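As a warm-up, study this chain.
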Amino acid sequence: MTVVKQVPVPLTFEHVRTAPKVLLHDHLDGGLRPATVVELAAASGYRSLPTRDPGELAAWFTSAADSGSLERYLETFGHTVGVMQDRAALVRVAAECAEDLAADGVVYAEVRYAPELHVERGLGLDDVVLAVLEGFRLGTERAALAGHRIRVGCLLTAMRHAARSREIAELAVRYRDDGVVGFDIAGAEAGFPPTRHLDAFEYLRQQNSHFTIHAGEAFGLPSIWEALQWCGADRLGHGVRIVDDVAVDAEGAVTLGRLAAYVRDKRIPLEMCPSSNIQTGAAKSLAEHPIGLLTKLRFRVTVNTDNRLMSGCSMTSELTDLAHTFGYGWADLQWFAVNAMKSAFIGFDERLALINDVIKPRYAELIG
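Now compare it with the structure written out below.
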């Protein structure tokens, strides 16, 4: 009997798009369609857009975000948040987010946003959460009709320079049975340590709730240490600067410092966002991005988009670029997806079902 050996599917952009992907770090206000921004601005009377041409606007966002500064990068969100101040806009943006991610092959996503940023025109915090949840429900249904299945969970974000983190934490617990799967803090790291929000984190732990913390992006090891050892974070948003605690000598021998060893030994997930990190100056280039070394050392690395509009990226583009830069194959891309699914803030049974019934079977076909 002749045994026919299956040939691996070529690792191209279009084939990567068909691979099941898991996304843990994606900002709702960083992923709008440019045309939607223009239409919502016209409908709401928002007059501060730099241009009303969708193509030019898309280019402006990526150019403005390419500053090498996290603070300047964050300024671009004034425009997206500015057009997300009523229920209809929030429903639309959330629905399109779910549809766009599903079309890109994402089978599970945790999308975060800060409810406190969407109350300028009279919405209450609960109104904001309910609108976004409705949008994700509609988008998931539309995606399924188009042949793309996705599960979307919300992370509610508190701004680290503000004083509403306990209130947002309570909001996350209040809606955790309705689609909110966890909590986050975000914003400029320097000068705003996560320990300013200990009350929120203590409350979340008491409520058996999950949370991640933006740490180790624009600020270094002290931010990571506080997020883990003082605040008790389940995951690290970015965590790029953990590489500062990894020494590589001239012969290539690697020595981990105490914190890096702790992060690896405890399998603490790193929500890494390559394109965004390059834009904000956390990495000089993709080839020099710490994700290469941290993946080689088998930290719990996950690949994410952060802000698809500002970075002009998708999960497909991020994974394809990584594969071409570091020589990754389908097995490596599966490893990233499984890492992320293991680290998701949903129940164990749901995570296991997606790994065994969706992710592994499809990668087996791609690997050949």
